[in-house]
């Protein structure tokens, strides 16, 4: 199997990569010092947690509005009926509806980032599990995408409210902004999410809870953060 070669830009960034953990503000400063891409790269946060992903009571999943958003709007659809259809579209939904929207997605349309739904629509929306489940777009109460207040949910997710969920390795990976953000905004976004994860520590977790925290921009090395 051929060895993957790194770009000259990546290798140049790697020269600035520190070997130890840095205070958050310093870690952000290092990431911002990396040679930028030709596009406005996304800044990502990865937290490796001392949880057992196989235990339901230790799983972390939900949604969170970062103080400064993530730097881009997202396409949101809403499964709803009655007056909520017009309200959802007025709030910024690219599509809203009930059976007609379900049929459109069953026919192959998936040009959206987030789907929200009212509780009353979930019996019908559950038919889309095979389509939306694998892409992570299925509305879920645990993810905060099954709600009564559809217009509010549409506005929040369109503005960049982030969903988070640990993977099978106990990692939580979220976007926390753009490379173009100033350092303070990135620090505040990252700090807010780290504090959220700390507050959500499952009571059954023993030993070290937050094992490793790393931040990076698209196609750059990671920089470890001291998050004790």
How would you describe the overall organization of this protein?
The structure is a single chain. This protein has helices at 8-14, 24-33, 83-90, 99-106, 122-125, 129-132, 150-158, 183-199; strands at residues 42-49, 61-64, 76-79, 95-97, 114-117, 162-165, 171-178, 210-217, 223-224. Helix 3 links the parallel strand 3 and strand 4. It contains eight helices and nine strands. Helix 2 crosses helix 8. The strands form three sheets. Strands 7-1-8-9 form a four-stranded antiparallel beta sheet, covered by helices on one side. Strands 4-3-5 form a three-stranded parallel beta sheet, with helices on both faces. The mean pLDDT is 92. 29% of the residues lie in helices and 20% in strands. It is of the alpha/beta class and 228 residues long. The longest helix is centred in the C-terminal third of the chain and has 17 residues, at 183-199.
Strand elements, count: 9
Principal-axes geometry comes out as: globular
Sheet with most strands: strand arrangement: 7-1-8-9
What is the succession of H and E elements? HHEEEHEHEHHHEEHEE
Question: What is the typical, i.e. mean, pLDDT?
Answer: 92
Beta-strand level of the residues, as a percent range?
15-25%
In terms of per-residue confidence, which ranges show pLDDT below 50 for 5 or more consecutive residues? none
Q: What is the oligomeric state here?
A: single chain
- Give the termini separation: 39 Å
């Amino acid at each position: 199997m051929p060895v993957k070669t790194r770009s000259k830009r990546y290798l140049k960034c790697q020269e600035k990569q520190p070997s130890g953990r840095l205070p958050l503000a310093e870690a952000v400063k290092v990431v911002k010092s990396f040679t930028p891409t030709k596009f406005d790269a996304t800044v990502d946060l990865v937290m490796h947690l001392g949880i057992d992903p196989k235990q339901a009571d230790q799983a972390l999943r939900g949604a969170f509005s970062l103080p400064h958003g993530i730097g881009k709007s997202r396409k949101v659809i809403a499964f709803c009926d009655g007056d909520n259809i017009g309200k959802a579209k007025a709030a910024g939904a690219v599509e809203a509806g009930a059976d007609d929207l379900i049929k459109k997605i069953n026919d192959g349309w998936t040009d959206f980032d987030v789907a929200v739904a009212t509780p009353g629509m979930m019996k019908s929306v559950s038919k889309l599990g095979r389509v939306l489940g694998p892409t992570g777009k299925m509305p879920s109460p645990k993810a905060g995408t099954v709600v009564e207040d559809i217009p509010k949910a549409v506005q929040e997710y369109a503005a960049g409210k982030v969903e988070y969920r640990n993977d099978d390795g106990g990692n939580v990976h979220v976007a926390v902004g753009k490379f173009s953000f100033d350092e303070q905004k990135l620090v505040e976004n990252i700090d807010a999410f780290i504090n959220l994860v700390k507050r959500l520590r499952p009571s059954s977790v023993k030993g070290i809870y937050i094992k490793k925290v790393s931040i990076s921009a698209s196609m750059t090395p990671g920089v470890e953060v001291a998050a004790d």
